[in-house]
Amino acid sequence: xxxxxxxxxxxxxxxxxxDQPHHLIAGLIVPEEDIRNIEDAVDGIMRxxxxxxxxxxxxxxxxxxxxxxxxxxxxxxxIDRIAAIHDTLDVxxxxxxxxxxxxxxxxxxxxxxxxxxxxxxxxxERVEDYLRSQEARGLLIADECKExxxxxxxxxxxxxxxxxxxxxxxxxxKQIVDSIHFVQSKNNLLIQCxxxxxxxxxxxxxxxxxxxxTFMALPEPKPAYQDHIASxxxxxxxxxxxxxxxxxxxxxxxxxxxx
Length: 259
What we know:
This protein is α/β, with parallel strands linked by helices and 259 residues long. Helices cover 49% and strands 18% of the residues. It has a 6-stranded mixed sheet, with helices on both faces. Helix 5 (149-161) links the parallel strand 4 (138-143) and strand 5 (176-183).
């Protein structure tokens, strides 16, 4: 059995915010035998880097706060926050954990669905593909998302009953068992891990898109693309790039819509 922990980044509801154009859902797929080892290791990482804060019942590993130094991480030096992120991703890389993600461009999408529903559909298809390749079953566990929880439960029920029934590859859902279970992230370390994955997967994706777009806008003759990348790597962008590459190494499949 594999447990698939799900969280999103870039959620602005149905509002097409030009400052937050992408809605990304990530799934952290973990074989059941690795779950306790990851929990223990990540708990140790938090205690190592954040000492007393990590013992608080309200303490939570949260990608946005880790990056910005807000919330429980206010006053923590960037070097310690970045080290905690890398240590957590290294733990995941040392197990059988894998990442899948799906992103929807809210500005360009042509659908009446909530972006979260559409990204969830694409994520479910790719989780199903991975589980089939492993001849494994999987159970979905997601961070609370009150706005769409009932719709996602019903969507998954329909996908299992027939298929995903949308786009060019309607997929029968056979390997995902039961329903989708929603939990509070503060009570689940693996949900906190996928929060981190979703946040930085989206930042890395958007940074790469922006780098490519600015390169294409340059007049001829253009510099070598790698030189253009290097010229834009501020300390913050370099951190996102390094973290993003680790997530990329864990990722078995992804989907962007529209392509």
